[in-house]
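Title: Comparing notes on inverse folding

I've been comparing how different people in this forum approach sequence design from structure. To keep things fair, I'm posting one structure and asking everyone to reply with a full sequence. Here's the target:
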C-alpha cells in the first residue's frame, strides 16, 4: 500500500492520531494525491472530518480551487488561481465529480456555459443524522454573479434533499459576505447562532445556518 493510500484510509476511518503520525513522518503527504486525483483535504472534507481538515491545513496542505470551494474558504486559501481552475477542461470536472460523490449520499450540481463551469455546489447526507443534509462548495464565477445562478444551484440542492425525505439542510457561510447570506435567507436558511473562525484566517468568521424542509 502506498503512503498516500494509507493516509486516505486513516482519514476515512477518522483516525486523527494516525493522520498526524503519517504527516509527521512524511510532511509532503498533505499535498499528495491518489491515482484518481483525490487529495487528503478533499477526502477529509467529504468524510465530514473537520478536525482532520484543520490538522492537514496546519501541516501545510494547500487546497486547490475546487477543494477551497468545497471547504467554503476565501480566495487567500486557494492553492491555485481562478484562472488556472477556469482553464481546466470539462472532462476534469466530470471526472472529479464522479470521484468525490458517493452514490446515494452525495450530489453535485454544475452550471455550465458551453464547456466552461460557471457555478457549482454539492449536497450530502449528514453522517451523524441521516435525516439531515448539508450544502457545501457553493461557488459562482465572479463574471456570472447576480444572474440567479446561485439561486438555481441552491434550489437544486433543496429539491434533492426533499426528494430524499430529509428534514433539514445545514451550511456554513462567511459572515463577511452579505450577498451569499442574503441568498441563503431568501431560500429559508436561518442562522443558528453558532459561529467559528475561518480555519485559514482566524480574523474572519463563518456562521452556521439551517433550513427546515
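Reply #1:
Here's my take.
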Amino acid at each position: 500500500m502506498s503512503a498516500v493510500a494509507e493516509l486516505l484510509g486513516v482519514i476515512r476511518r477518522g483516525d486523527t492520531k494516525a493522520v498526524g503520525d503519517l504527516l509527521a513522518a512524511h510532511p509532503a503527504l498533505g499535498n499528495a494525491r491518489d491515482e484518481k486525483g483525490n487529495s487528503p483535504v478533499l477526502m477529509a472534507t467529504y468524510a465530514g472530518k473537520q478536525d482532520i481538515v484543520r490538522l492537514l491545513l496546519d501541516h501545510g496542505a494547500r487546497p486547490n480551487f475546487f477543494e477551497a470551494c468545497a471547504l467554503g474558504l476565501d480566495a487567500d486559501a486557494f492553492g491555485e488561481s481562478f484562472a488556472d481552475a477556469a482553464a481546466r477542461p470539462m472532462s476534469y470536472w466530470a471526472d472529479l465529480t464522479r470521484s468525490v460523490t458517493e452514490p446515494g449520499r452525495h450530489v453535485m450540481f454544475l452550471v455550465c456555459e458551453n464547456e466552461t463551469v460557471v457555478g457549482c455546489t454539492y449536497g450530502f447526507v449528514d453522517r451523524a443524522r441521516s435525516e439531515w443534509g448539508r450544502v457545501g462548495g457553493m461557488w459562482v464565477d465572479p463574471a456570472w454573479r447576480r444572474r440567479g445562478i446561485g439561486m438555481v444551484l441552491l434550489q437544486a440542492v433543496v429539491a434533492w434533499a426533499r426528494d430524499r425525505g430529509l428534514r433539514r439542510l445545514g451550511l456554513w457561510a462567511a459572515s463577511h459576505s452579505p450577498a451569499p447570506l442574503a441568498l441563503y435567507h431568501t431560500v429559508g436558511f436561518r442562522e443558528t447562532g453558532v459561529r467559528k473562525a475561518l480555519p485559514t484566517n482566524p480574523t474572519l468568521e463563518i456562521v452556521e445556518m439551517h433550513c427546515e424542509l
